[in-house]
Amino acid sequence: MSNIVLFEEKHVRRAWDKDAEKWVFAIVDVIAALTESPNPQVYWRVMKKRLRDEGNQTVTNCNALKMTAADGKQRLTDVADTEQLLRLIQSIPSPKAEPFKLWLAQVGYERLEEIENPELAAKRTREIYQQKGYSEEWIEKRMRGIAIRDELTDEWKKRGVKEQREYAILTAEISKATFGMTPTEYKAFKALANPKENLRDHMTDLELIFTMLGEASTTEIAKKKDAQGFPANQQAARLGGTIAGNARRELELESGTQVSTPENFKALTQREAKKLRSGKSKAD
Q1: How far is the C-alpha of 42 from the C-alpha of 54, rounded, in Å?
Q2: Could you tell me the residue ranges of all domains in the chain?
């Protein structure tokens, strides 16, 4: 599964090759980061043909991998590991080439550190959320939610569920039963126009809590029922989401407040900033 890292505000998609224990990066994203090309795909296509004509083996060794495209769909894109990228960069005239090489080295080093000490990955994720302006209370729930999600996907993998498409379907089942909306519908509800935005990064504390409950319940049911294969795990996902959905409705009935809210990250951080400003004013 791909994720995104930033090089000078440019998004670069990457995926961890577990067998080779190394990162692979989307070549078109690297080209977009290094050049002013209005169409990195065309730039890469022309460059690839030229290198092949020159007998450059680096290109023929580049594999294609499914990664999340700008429209949110999984599409095949050429990828390269660090060694391949360093060779390709030599053929890209760019003043950013040297800074990018240093960035690549740092990204690789950080991953090796995280393999040796997994707590570093959690620490770096926490620091990113702090820099973005999230409250400590929210970050605690988000980090716990990440751990619960990882436990669920590990369970799915052990039980014969195929990654990507089937994971997405099961996740939608849990969300629909928990909130009455699939993740896609939830993004529209929160007015998130960018398909790359992570829905959970725009959730309130309560939304995160019920998301965790739905996924933790699904994991427990899958274990107890020894669900094997997609159909059995789909049923477990519906049951797990239903448990969270019932709890949500009960809370809404007693509190008179809806758990699902159209508030997104911008609104959440502005609210926290307002609290901080208010606290400073009182202190003054």
Answers
A1: 18
A2: 3-116, 132-283
